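User: Can you help me understand a structure? I only have the sequence.
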Amino acid sequence: MRFGYPVSLDVAGRRCVVVGGGPLAAQKADGLLAAGAQVVAIAARPSPGLREAAAAGRIELVARCFRAGDLAGVFLAIATGEDPVSNIEVAAEARRERVLFNALDDVVHCDFAAAAVVRRGELRLAVSTGGKAPALARRLREQLEVRFGDEWGQLVEVLDGARRACLPRTVTFSEWQRRWATALRDPQRLAERLAAGDRESVRDGVLRVMRTGSGPS
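Assistant: Let's start by predicting it. Here is the structure, written out as tokens:
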């Protein structure tokens, strides 16, 4: 099975390259930017979206065809197939430079399958089909975007604050896990309360469970 081990990469501050100049390249650049990457777009025919992003200083734009040496010092590269350059050429350069590589709709040359991602603050919901059915992954992402609102990102922040407030841990790890299971018995309800502006009460409830081991969150 290819791409059988899902991971989340830290690209923050790392140089990442998108090869391609159309709407797909702009989408990939936006996704990398959302993760904090330093994005370079290489495109013989850059789309208006890429030009605007470059003009705003969000990305570096190299307005020409891909060349050997373009992946030197790069952490990750994505080829969208929108420029007159062979994925084989970019993949070969990625191998030489030890760069993680993904080519859209070209599983053979990929090191990883890019998941369809819903971002809610620090919460990431990723759907992957191992590159076999990207349209299905996108459709499921659309459904998840409706299902999980911004309140779920708030819930992550509340839980992180409660966790740090209870450290260092004074109970066994199994008891720690049990308390978290109790605190998160109904995460949907917690998210709904956060959406209604009840943040302080949610935090206090989680803290009470984590500190005493009992009581509703």
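Now, to help you interpret it: The longest strand covers residues 15-19. The beta strands are 15-19, 38-42, 60-62, 76-79, 100-103, 116-120, 123-127. Let me know which part you'd like to focus on.
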